[in-house]
Amino acid sequence: MLIIMLIIILVVYFGTISMKLKKYNSEKRTDKVTKSLSIIIKISPIVGMVIFSILFAFILKGKFLERVTHSILVFTLWMYATKFYQYILSYYKKKDILISSTIGMLFSAVLAIILTPLEQYVNMIYSYINWSAIFLGLILYITFYIVTFGVEKRKSKNNQSRGVE
Predict the structure, then answer these.
(1) Distance CA 132, CA 50 (A)
(2) Of 3, 17, 78, 95, which residue has the fewest beta carbons closer than 10 angstroms?
């Protein structure tokens, strides 16, 4: 149950850090890398679905529900870690964002690593909430995209109103 609370704390932390970013401009020096990373983050769910579909259809047999909920949750935790990494690259001159994003990236990565073994995931999450774990994964996923695209939309709107390209 503790791990579920830690995941919820991660989501709130991610939202808080992301909302702080709307008042900062990213560093132009890292735009090439961070734009590529942003594209990867946007298309990763499609690639992930294809890969997981192939794995579930041909290789991974049995424990279907456990494996599906596990893959959604761990995949989303890695997406959070990657987005925090993008924040580190984009706002490396802003010490508060740099430190906060580093903590968030490490927190996300550690949670993902802890939950990567299926047996560990089943013991820590699935045994408590069973098939409802899919909702936890989907909430993480939806929150990630709402926050990410909300911040990007607000930043682009703010930049347009200031005349910044």
Answers:
(1) 23
(2) 95
Is the pTM here over 0.70, yes or no?
yes
Per-residue pLDDT tens, the chain, 165 aa: give them. Answer: 789 999 999 999 999 998 888 777 777 878 788 888 888 888 888 888 898 888 888 887 788 888 888 999 999 999 999 999 999 988 888 898 899 999 999 999 999 999 999 999 999 999 888 888 889 989 999 999 888 887 776 666 655 555 554
66 in helix, strand or coil? helix
If you search the block for the tokens 């706002």, which residue do you land on? 91
First-to-last C-alpha distance (Å) of the chain:
46
Q: Is the dihedral of CA 84, 86, 90, 93 positive or negative?
A: positive
Query: In this structure, which amino acid lies at residue 111?
Result: L
